[in-house]
Specification:
mainly alpha, 66% helix
Amino acid sequence: MKKALSIIAKINEIANRFIVNELNKYGIKELAPSHGDILAALYSEDNLTMKDIADKIHRTRPTVTVLVDKLEKLGFVKKVISNSDKRYTYISLTKKGNEFRPVFAKISNNLNKKLYKDITDDVYCKLEDLLMLILKNVKE
């Protein structure tokens, strides 16, 4: 019996619990682990469309819309309708979103240390390649 999916789900569950605990240490109760992908995308490149974010984080646009709406209500991001083409709404970080960046980085670094402890760069690269192949397969 192949157990990879079950193992991945368990890792995700434990990682999410870790993130929630770390956020609580900083007194941040309103964010959920699912917001992390959106913030990470915007920290790497601010001012993205919903489609850009969805493509970057491998989520559907409706899912991204729900997550962005929550982040907007919490004051981490803002939506700006394009001046040149009203069909496009750009998502960018607010002051609060930018101020959260160091905390986000610290939590991410702590999680990565935990996840990849004792894993060499070569093994990590192979793991990532395999996981991307699995992701591609399930999307087909």
